[in-house]
Design brief:
The protein folds into two domains: 11-43; 50-148. The radius of gyration is 19 Å and the shape is globular. 15% of the residues are buried. The model has no long low-confidence stretch (mean pLDDT 87). The chain is an alpha+beta fold. β1 and β2 (24-31) form a beta hairpin. The chain contains five helices and six strands.
Amino acid sequence: MHCPYCGSKESEVVETRDSEDLDAIRRRRACQKCEKRFTTYERVENVYLIVIKKDKKREQFDRNKLRSGLLKAIEKTTVPLSDIDRIVTEVERELKTADSVEVESKKIGQMVAVKLKKLDKVAYLRFASVFKRFVDLEDFEKEVKRLTK
């Protein structure tokens, strides 16, 4: 394990516990060189999900990519990061328990949109504008009308 601060390979595990969602082991580490602390997570990687993009290309599911998109959607809102991490974990769990290891990106977007809509309307609109590829103001107006019904 490399220290994210100094790059040293020498670290010591200070604390170990299960993550809140029980999908990972959380380890608190201390670098023996610079003495700074950092957290690592260990997850079992046994199911590889393949995302089928709109152009039909395939790529491996990346929870960090999903999280990054959600973080852009919640910028300047009051949505806590813990809610974003929960959504990412829920979506990943639902995908892994589905019948197929291949899933269309559209389905992932729909799953996230449903969860985000319940959480924060502004963040949902931001996410939907990218996911649904809003082209002009009319697209936003239609979605806002759907939200207010």
